[in-house]
Amino acid sequence: MNSKKLVVVKQRCPQNHPCPAVRVCPVGALKQTGFAAPVVDYDLCINCGKCARACPMGALVLE
Predict the structure, then answer these.
(1) Could you tell me the CATH number of the domain that includes residue 40?
(2) What tens digit of pLDDT does each residue of 9-30 get?
């Protein structure tokens, strides 16, 4: 069991563009409204880390 949890660090997210990490999530666990920071659906998230690697600002972190 993976004990890590995905955290969105809103202070690092510029919130001025479509989030590139939303497109790489294999299970659709990241959602974005407008250009706001993405929100994680923890019921869907499998903690694979793909979104964290896709975020150029380091705003998505597996802790």
Answers:
(1) 3.30.70.20
(2) 999 999 999 999 999 999 999 9
What total number of domains does the chain contain?
1
User: Which residues, at least 6 apart from 24, have a Cβ–Cβ distance to it below 8 Å?
Assistant: 50, 51, 54
pLDDT digits (tens, 9 = 90+) for 25-43: 999 999 999 999 999 999 9
Q: Bridge-partner residues for 6, per DSSP?
A: 62
1 assigned to some structural domain: no
Residues spanned by the domain of 40: 6-62
